[in-house]
């Protein structure tokens, strides 16, 4: 396994910049996920790391070696591709042993190593099979075994699970995580799937428009996103536009289209003043529903155990969507539409037209400036 350093990495195609100023250190044995939407530059970054693309600017180091200008065959890396790229005219065993054959390993040794890898990915009983007869999940396991068989310093995975159905994809995520923990090799995994990144990663690097925006452990980037893009990309949320009505060392009061102020607790003098435009994020899991509106109006704020004020509004249910284990309710509040999720096992049934009360703790609300940058109080 090896440490990886990307320093000022850029890739331009004519006047188009695909990757811009990417710098990151990846630790020995770490599983880093590069996460972002299509066109964010994550696969191009991986291809430069693999030696399949040459950087326009910047440096790539694997261990103590500068590999920036090295071709792929001179780097001890191995890549698992989205389309598996198995040889249809070779058996499963021959596919897994192919990389070792290219490195001049003897027949007995490469078959021994290939069988060990097939055993590891639970494909030992298929060594004589034709790859074209395998299922998608089985092909993915063979491709993974082939890449691991050459004992690479770094394993690169370019959206390897995207062609699998949901259940199989989830199973393979767990399997990949277990393989990484067993082998303790350095993995760099590219995906656009947030759940996949959270399941697999030691750290997540979030990319957008060619830039690496934030790097951190999964809980860190989810709970403390650097900007509005990350907050919206990492999960469903309600974005509510507002304007600061007043601010003090204790709280920031924001006027919104919900028909009442949202109160955010402050631990210090906030860097906002009256009239500052903000976008607030209310994640559905932080919102609770009270089917009764008789417990008080939206202006009567119940108190938390620590003395901080809860926020509360009253709205009308627009529609109810059943999503298996959860139910999503869209609620009209003032001039805004807010969605709330609750467990499908909740005994209280909501229907369109019901008037309900929504409550949340102001400490759970994130705020962003008009340019998308995070505001902390």
UniProtKB/TrEMBL annotation:
<dbReference type="GO" id="GO:0016887">
    <property type="term" value="F:ATP hydrolysis activity"/>
</dbReference>
<protein>
    <recommendedName>
        <fullName>Molybdate/tungstate import ATP-binding protein WtpC</fullName>
        <ecNumber>7.3.2.6</ecNumber>
    </recommendedName>
</protein>
<feature type="domain" description="ABC transporter">
    <location>
        <begin position="4"/>
        <end position="234"/>
    </location>
</feature>
<dbReference type="InterPro" id="IPR050093">
    <property type="entry name" value="ABC_SmlMolc_Importer"/>
</dbReference>
<dbReference type="Pfam" id="PF00005">
    <property type="entry name" value="ABC_tran"/>
</dbReference>
<dbReference type="GO" id="GO:0005524">
    <property type="term" value="F:ATP binding"/>
</dbReference>
<dbReference type="GO" id="GO:0043190">
    <property type="term" value="C:ATP-binding cassette (ABC) transporter complex"/>
</dbReference>
<dbReference type="InterPro" id="IPR012340">
    <property type="entry name" value="NA-bd_OB-fold"/>
</dbReference>
<dbReference type="InterPro" id="IPR003439">
    <property type="entry name" value="ABC_transporter-like_ATP-bd"/>
</dbReference>
<dbReference type="Pfam" id="PF08402">
    <property type="entry name" value="TOBE_2"/>
</dbReference>
<dbReference type="InterPro" id="IPR013611">
    <property type="entry name" value="Transp-assoc_OB_typ2"/>
</dbReference>
<comment type="function">
    <text>Part of the ABC transporter complex WtpABC involved in molybdate/tungstate import. Responsible for energy coupling to the transport system.</text>
</comment>
<comment type="subunit">
    <text>The complex is composed of two ATP-binding proteins (WtpC), two transmembrane proteins (WtpB) and a solute-binding protein (WtpA).</text>
</comment>
<comment type="similarity">
    <text>Belongs to the ABC transporter superfamily. Sulfate/tungstate importer (TC 3.A.1.6) family.</text>
</comment>
<keyword id="KW-0067">ATP-binding</keyword>
<dbReference type="InterPro" id="IPR008995">
    <property type="entry name" value="Mo/tungstate-bd_C_term_dom"/>
</dbReference>
<dbReference type="InterPro" id="IPR017871">
    <property type="entry name" value="ABC_transporter-like_CS"/>
</dbReference>
<keyword id="KW-0500">Molybdenum</keyword>
<keyword id="KW-0813">Transport</keyword>
<dbReference type="InterPro" id="IPR027417">
    <property type="entry name" value="P-loop_NTPase"/>
</dbReference>
<dbReference type="InterPro" id="IPR003593">
    <property type="entry name" value="AAA+_ATPase"/>
</dbReference>
<keyword id="KW-0547">Nucleotide-binding</keyword>
<dbReference type="GO" id="GO:1901238">
    <property type="term" value="F:ABC-type tungstate transporter activity"/>
</dbReference>
């Amino acid at each position: 396994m090896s440490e990886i350093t990307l320093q000022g990495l850029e890739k331009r195609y004519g006047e188009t910049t695909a990757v811009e100023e990417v710098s990151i250190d990846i630790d020995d044995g770490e599983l880093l996920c590069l996460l972002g939407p299509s066109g964010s530059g994550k696969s191009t970054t991986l291809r430069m790391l693999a030696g399949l693309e040459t950087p326009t600017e910047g440096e790539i180091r694997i261990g103590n070696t500068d590999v920036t200008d090295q071709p792929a065959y001179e780097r001890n890396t191995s890549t698992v591709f989205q389309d598996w790229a198995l040889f249809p005219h070779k058996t499963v065993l021959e596919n897994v042993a192919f990389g070792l054959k290219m490195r001049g390993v003897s027949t007995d040794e490469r078959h021994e190593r290939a069988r060990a890898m097939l055993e590891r990915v639970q494909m030992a009983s298929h060594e004589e099979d034709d790859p074209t007869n395998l299922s998608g999940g089985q092909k993915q396991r063979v491709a993974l075994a082939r890449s691991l068989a050459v004992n690479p310093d770094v394993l690169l995975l370019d959206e390897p699970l995207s062609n699998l159905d949901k259940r199989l994809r989830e199973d393979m995520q767990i399997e990949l995580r277990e393989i990484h923990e067993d082998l303790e090799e350095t993995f760099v995994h590219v995906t656009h799937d947030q759940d996949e990144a959270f399941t697999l990663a030691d750290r997540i690097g979030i990319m957008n428009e060619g830039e690496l925006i934030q790097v951190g452990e999964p809980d860190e980037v989810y709970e403390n996103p650097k900007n509005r893009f990350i907050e919206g990309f990492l999960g469903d949320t309600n974005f509510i536009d507002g304007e600061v009505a007043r601010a003090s060392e204790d709280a920031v009061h924001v006027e919104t289209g919900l028909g009442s102020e949202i109160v955010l607790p402050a631990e210090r003098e906030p860097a906002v003043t009256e009239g500052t435009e903000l976008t607030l994020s209310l994640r559905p899991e932080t919102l609770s529903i009270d089917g009764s509106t008789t417990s008080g109006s939206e202006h009567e704020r119940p108190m938390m155990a620590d003395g901080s004020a809860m926020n509360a509004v009253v709205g009308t249910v627009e529609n109810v969507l059943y999503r298996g284990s959860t139910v999503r309710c869209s609620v009209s509040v003032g001039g805004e539409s807010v969605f709330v999720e609750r467990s499908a096992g909740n005994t209280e049934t909501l229907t369109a037209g019901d008037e309900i009360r929504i409550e949340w703790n102001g400490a759970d609300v994130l705020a962003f400036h008009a340019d998308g940058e995070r505001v902390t109080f």
